[in-house]
Amino acid sequence: MIACERYRFNDFTLINYRRLLSLALKNYSFSLFSTRKIYNSNTLLLRHDVEFSVPIALEMARIEHNLGIRATYFIQLHGDFYNSLEGKTFKQIKEIESLGHQLALHFDAHFWEITQEDRLEFFLIKDKETFEKYFMTEPKVFSFHNNNAFTLSCFKETYAGMINVYSSLFTNVFGYCADSTGYWRYEVLEERLKEAKDKVLQVLIHDGMWGDEVLPPRRRVYKVIDDHASFMKNSYDETLRRFGAKNIDWEGEI
Questions:
Q1: Mean per-residue pLDDT for 150-169?
Q2: How far is it, in rounded angstroms, from Cα 120 to Cα 156?
C-alpha cells in the first residue's frame, strides 16, 4: 500500500473537513468543554490545537460557523510557527472568537522547563494572565503542547482554574480521535463518526494538517511555512512602499 492510501492523504482537505462535520451532525450534538456538566448522549467536543497556521484555523472556524457548530480553539503564546500577538494574527484569532467559538490556552510546559506538578500551577497562571490581558477573555480550558511523560501524568480535572483536557475524565472515560502529525493516530475519524459508539467523543484537529491540496503531512506543514514567508516578504515591501522608503535590491530600487 502506497503512503497516500495508507495515511489517507485525501482525508485532509478543507472540502473533506466540511463533509466530516456534516457527517458528525447526523449522529452527534456539539458542545464546549465543561467540568461539572453532565454531557448528553452522543456529544462531540471539537478541539483545535492551533500550532501552525492561524489563517487555516480561521477557515475551519468559518466552515464550522456556517454549519452552526461551536468549537474550542487552543492558542499558543510561545509557538514557533506564529506570533499570537502580531497584528494580523491577533485579529484573525479575535475573528475566530467573533464566530462564536471559544478561545482557550495551548500551554507549552517545555517553554517554562516544567518537570514537576507543583510548578505547573505557577506558570499556568502566568500564561493565563497574559492571555486574558491581550485577548480580553478568560481562558477556561487548556491543553498541553507536545505531550511527554510529565504532562501526561497531570491528571487533575483543573489547574489554575482551567479545565485540563488531559484529565482522567477526558482521557479515560470519553472517546478520543486525533489527527496529530497529519494522520489518524488511533482510529479514522469518518469511521468513528459513522459508528457513533461514544457517548462523548473528543476530536482533536491541527490546522496545518489540513489544506486545499492533497499533500503528505510534511508537505502540508512546509506549505504553511512557505505561505507565511511569502506574507512576511510582501509585508516588508508593502511597508516600505506605504511610508515612501527606498526598497533596494541587487538591481537597485524596486
A1: 94
A2: 12
